[in-house]
Fold LPS export ABC transporter periplasmic protein LptC.
Amino acid sequence: MRLTLPDTMATYVNKRTAHRWRLLAVMLLGVFCAFGSFWLLQLVTQSNQGAQLGARGNEPDYIVDNFSFVRMGPNGKPRYVVSGNRLTHRPVDDVSFVDKPVVQGMTVEHPRMTMTADRARILHGQNQVDLIGNVDVERPGNATSQPLSIKTEQMTVLPDEELLKTDKPVEMKLGGAIVRGTGMLANNATQQVHLAKQGQIIYPPRANR
């Protein structure tokens, strides 16, 4: 026995089926949109958290005003002391920034040098001090060496090796003589100073006999 639906009834059934498919498609689209929005929100949140963590990680972990610390040598004796108005340490690269630094050598084998500047950057891992702005180096004289004064705008100090170096213009006073040049390497251990280029030496006038 075969049941034949009237045309109007068949049309009604087809419309209901089509409506259900459209409704199902709309529901699936809504689910996908909701999932996509949730995933995008999670991605943005994670990115913001990562950026915040990165920013916080580069923030200073400690700040010290009117500080002073001593660097000890392998023999347990002090090598040099660094002081200043403020020290700001950043943990990411283990670097400290110093306002109005004063670096003083503490060795007894050689004349003690005192170095000042507007600011400094201390690379703790490399035992290196970068002096920046109005750098002034003073070393008193003794029985075997003359007083030494060096002025420049930037200088790298390697305290463990007792080395000073710069590629900036330098004015140096050694005893009564004035030496000007560009680029310098000074070794306090050997009492030697080397100017890289454009050197000029001005000697004081001879005293009348």
